[in-house]
């Protein structure tokens, strides 16, 4: 079985714009990744969207 090609993406909080998490994403996915995660800066669960890793 062949390995799937994946890339590392950063997840940025929509409210305070801090990059809090990283995740793997398949290169075949065209839409941006969105997850509800805890933001330590906002101190609540917020929507985090995909951005590029530096």
Description:
The protein is mainly beta. It has a single domain (6-51), classed as Ribosomal protein L33 (Rubrerythrin, domain 2). It has no helices and four strands. A four-stranded antiparallel beta sheet has the order 2-1-4-3, with no helix packed on it. Strand 1 (6-13) and strand 2 form a beta hairpin. The protein is elongated and about 40 Å long. The termini are far apart. The mean pLDDT is 92.
Features:
54 residues, mainly beta, Rubrerythrin, domain 2, four-stranded antiparallel β-sheet, 4 strands
Could you give a quick summary of the protein structure above?
The protein has 54 residues and is mainly β.
Q: Which regions contain 5 or more consecutive residues with pLDDT less than 50?
A: none
Radius of gyration: 12 Å
What is the CA-CA span between the terminal residues? 31 Å
CATH superfamily: Ribosomal protein L33
What's the layout of helices and strands?
Layout: E1 6-13, E2 19-26, E3 34-39, E4 44-51
Antiparallel strand pairs: 1-2, 1-4, 3-4
């Amino acid at each position: 079985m062949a390995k799937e090609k994946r890339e590392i993406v950063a997840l940025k909080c929509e409210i305070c714009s801090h990059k809090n998490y990283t995740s793997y994403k398949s290169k075949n996915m065209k839409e941006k990744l969105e997850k509800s995660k805890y933001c330590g800066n906002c101190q609540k669960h917020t929507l985090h969207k995909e951005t590029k890793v530096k």
